[in-house]
Amino acid sequence: MNNIPFGPTYEEMLHPHKIDKDIRKRALKALKEDELDPINLFNINWKDENNEVHKVVLPKALTGVDANIVVMLGKYIPSGSHKVGAGYSTLIEGSIDGSIVSGEHTILGPSTGNFGIGVAYICNLMKYEAIVIMPDNMSNERYERIERYGAKLDLTPGTESDVILTLERTYELKKDPKTRSLAQFELMPNYRWHRHVTGNSAIEAVKGIGNGRIACFASAPGSAGTLAAGDQIKKVFPEAKIAALEPYECSTLMNGGRGQHRIEGIGDKMITLIHNVINTDFIALIKDEDSVRGLKILHDGIDTLVKNGVDRKDAESMTEMFGVSGICNIIGAIKMAKYLKLGPDDNIVTVATDGFDRYESVMVDLEKRTLEIEDFVLDRWFVDVFRKNGIEDIVDYRSDSQKEKLYIQKEKDWLKFGYKQEYLDSMRNSEFWDGEYNKIFEVDKQIIKMRKE
């Protein structure tokens, strides 16, 4: 690996200032000049060069609510998405325990896009062959970037709503003993990375904002890795509420929905194995067209935003910050702020998994199926997306009966993949999740040890 250490520990991904100063300096230089330099492994974190969390506090003229909505920005992480963190963590843990061997194994990355991009990127840096399994109707930008990083594509039928087919295809490919899967939906390094790195970064992100606490963390599940941040947030702020955001058109958690939707990055039709449903307090539904139209407004509707009270510099700064799933999360945060009746001292944290750079084709598609997109249309969309979304389609999932529905659905989804009932039952206890989280400390010791070998 070009004479650099084995890669960052979980603690260094949370606190990059703890990385050797020379390595940190070289990594920051490579981030700007050469994204395929392996030293970029040490840029897998939420922090900027000043060790501050990449974030934006949304203008209240945009959100229309009193609460502070803090959005952590994944576009600044190598490969352009926070999904690379889960990919690296899963690969490095496999390398440590000997289940993944360089030069022997081809890596499989089941995904609807961003995780696949992250797997392709990490495998490029760490010199593994990679195959990304994903639906065949995602944005072209996703396919192009995966191939640019040197991975092969294995496409399954459908869209975001058919992610279960990618999992089934992965299980077929896993029968080859020369393959190893970085299965984001079921392997715990994904959970560990987000709980430790994303969760603690979220806690840092609200320092100096409002009351400095987190009232709510809202995120679409996807693999449910990001939702693991909520487990750590609740350890520090027990009053915090965790909201899982689903597409209205395919609300799997809420009612077993089996529809299609356009919110790329939040695959559905299953409850992922790593989803700790104990800490899911609310489920809120977001309409996919609102997410796509909201992205159009923030990317191209600067005048619309200014007309509605957003400072022009703020409007201009946000044009490249978000993707479709980020807008979904923002709408969900707005809805939860209204539902929980949060005030100006309260903070809601959410994430923008990626930026606009992989959604130009989505905007082209929006224009093709829309009769006209003039300024007056953007003005109307602004009201529909950011003002009229209210407390409808939000359900409280804190009762035992609601939790039981989720446990039963998870069993239905995962017993067929060979997991035992006893293992699934163990996930009903917080001790299981805390035990999985605490493994990071031993992993970090092993990483440091392998650096010296």
In angstroms, what separates the terminal alpha carbons? 13 Å
What order do the SSEs take from the amino end to the carboxyl end, as H and E?
Answer: HHEHEHEHEHEHEHEHEHEHHHHEHHEHHH
CATH top level assignment of the domain at 55-77 and 194-396: Alpha Beta
Percent of residues in helical segments? 40-55%
**Quaternary organization:** single chain
Poorly predicted spans: none
How many strand units? 11
CATH fold-level name of the domain at 55-77 and 194-396: Rossmann fold
Radius of gyration: 21 Å
CATH architecture of the domain at 55-77 and 194-396: 3-Layer(aba) Sandwich
Shape: globular
User: Strand arrangement, largest sheet?
Assistant: 1-2-10-7-8-9-11
Strand content: 5-15%
Biggest sheet details:
7 strands, mixed
Mean pLDDT: 92
Number of helices: 19
Computed structural class: alpha/beta
Describe this structure in words.
The chain has 453 residues and is α/β, with parallel strands linked by helices. It has a domain at 55-77 and 194-396: 3-Layer(aba) Sandwich (Rossmann fold). It is built from 19 helices and 11 strands. The chain has helices at 10-14, 21-33, 60-63, 83-97, 114-126, 140-148, 163-173, 188-205, 229-236, 252-255, 288-300, 302-307, 312-317, 324-339, 360-368, 375-386, 400-414, 421-426, 430-451, and strands at 55-57, 68-73, 106-110, 130-135, 152-156, 179-181, 216-219, 241-247, 282-286, 347-352, 394-396. The chain has a 7-stranded mixed β-sheet, sandwiched between helices. Strand 7, helix 9 and strand 8 (241-247) form a beta-alpha-beta unit. The radius of gyration is 21 Å and the shape is globular. The protein starts with 9 loop residues before the first helix and ends with a helix.
